[in-house]
Amino acid sequence: MTAGAALGAATVRARVPVDLHRAAGRTAELVTFRGLPDDGEHLACLVPPRDTRAPLVRLHSECLTGDVFGSTRCDCGPQLDEALNLLAVHGGVLLYLRQEGRGIGLYNKLDTYLLQDRGTDTFEANRLIGRGADERDYLAAAVMLRTLGLHRVRLLTNNPDKVRQLRDHGIDIAETLPTGVHLTPGNAAYLEAKARSGHHLPVRGPETEVRA
């Protein structure tokens, strides 16, 4: 699929009161899409006012265990909270992408937890069940942004693959802003594996100071 292909159309825009804890009581707008290049029911969360020249954008991959149940095995829930808090201040867009387990799905992700409990890191556990270490593709995200009229953005991420893929799909990344390092005793090994995989995270190993 080429970056200039005509894909995607917004279908529904619904105003939603965002939880006070997560976004300072701001009211967001949720947007659904049709005609995306995959079958995911992805959502855009628009928080006004946003910079029309290069709005703040966060691509957040769904994590039921972290986002909803508050699992401390990963940093997904804190990253979602951080993004919504920043959007409450600056405005912008959060794309909530249905890519559970880096694209392998919820049940497969839970299977990999059993391997991780035996000492396998999160990426190798994916491979051991016959899946890719990270199967996420951000073409749908690029289409969503273009459908919303956003061609130049400031991207909140520590993941260089998101930057590379969005640029490959025709989105101009004006600036990359790092997320915080949400390090706890429960997710230290997970964050160390992300750092080894290329994420820009100052996580050095078990001796790293843990911050709540």
UniProtKB/TrEMBL annotation:
<keyword id="KW-0479">Metal-binding</keyword>
<dbReference type="Pfam" id="PF00925">
    <property type="entry name" value="GTP_cyclohydro2"/>
</dbReference>
<keyword id="KW-0378">Hydrolase</keyword>
<keyword id="KW-0547">Nucleotide-binding</keyword>
<comment type="pathway">
    <text>Cofactor biosynthesis; riboflavin biosynthesis; 5-amino-6-(D-ribitylamino)uracil from GTP: step 1/4.</text>
</comment>
<keyword id="KW-0342">GTP-binding</keyword>
<protein>
    <recommendedName>
        <fullName>GTP cyclohydrolase II</fullName>
        <ecNumber>3.5.4.25</ecNumber>
    </recommendedName>
</protein>
<dbReference type="InterPro" id="IPR032677">
    <property type="entry name" value="GTP_cyclohydro_II"/>
</dbReference>
<dbReference type="GO" id="GO:0003935">
    <property type="term" value="F:GTP cyclohydrolase II activity"/>
</dbReference>
<keyword id="KW-0686">Riboflavin biosynthesis</keyword>
<dbReference type="InterPro" id="IPR000926">
    <property type="entry name" value="RibA"/>
</dbReference>
<keyword id="KW-0862">Zinc</keyword>
<dbReference type="InterPro" id="IPR036144">
    <property type="entry name" value="RibA-like_sf"/>
</dbReference>
<feature type="domain" description="GTP cyclohydrolase II">
    <location>
        <begin position="20"/>
        <end position="178"/>
    </location>
</feature>
